């Protein structure tokens, strides 16, 4: 079994927003941990916030996270003013599909962005969305065992 994201990029900052716009994309749904912020960090860096603000000029921005820790969830919500849904159970699509329905997002104009092929990319693909796989936003400081696990999971990714 191979997973083929539409784009395979180093980080969110490498997303070509003009290209997505030209392809008719109107909404970007992001995974949270390791995609928009370091795992379990609970806040966005100023660079990421600035970038998201720029994205929001042209796109709907939302977060679909599998995280289910109440303390962490409230910490994240306190520093997000865009829609966030937690306990999404990706790659299951039910929660994400409801979230999209709630904001009238259509799969053909939505792009799903995340760092995990087996959860984020699978979920996006099963929803019928465009998909972007990114490396961890904190790849440079991840432990060797985490890098190894990522490498293993990425052996399923077809480029
Ligand atoms: Mg993640």
Task: Characterize the structure shown.
With 159 residues, this protein is of the alpha/beta class. It has one domain (11-87, 94-154): HAD superfamily/HAD-like (Rossmann fold, 3-Layer(aba) Sandwich), CATH 3.40.50. Helix content is 36%, strand content 15%. Strands 1-6-5-2-3-4 form a 6-stranded parallel sheet, sandwiched between helices. Helix 5 links the parallel strand 5 and strand 6 (130-134). The longest helix is centred in the first third of the chain and has 11 residues, at 46-56. Magnesium ion binds at residues 31, 33-35, 114-116.
What characteristics describe this protein?
six-stranded parallel β-sheet, binds magnesium ion, globular, 159 residues, alpha/beta
Work out the oligomeric state of the chains in this entry. Answer: single chain
Give the second-level CATH assignment, the architecture.
3-Layer(aba) Sandwich
Poorly predicted residue ranges:
none
Give the cofactors and ligands: magnesium ion
Give the C-level CATH assignment: Alpha Beta
How do the strands of the widest beta sheet line up side by side? 1-6-5-2-3-4
Mean pLDDT: 94
Give a quick precis of the structure.
The chain is 36% helix and 15% strand. The protein is α/β, with parallel strands linked by helices and 159 residues long. The longest helix has 11 residues, at 46-56.
SSE layout and pairing:
Elements: E1 7-9, H1 17-22, E2 27-30, H2 46-56, E3 60-64, H3 70-78, E4 84-85, H4 94-102, E5 110-114, H5 117-127, E6 130-134, H6 144-154
Parallel strand pairs: 1-6, 2-3, 2-5, 3-4, 5-6
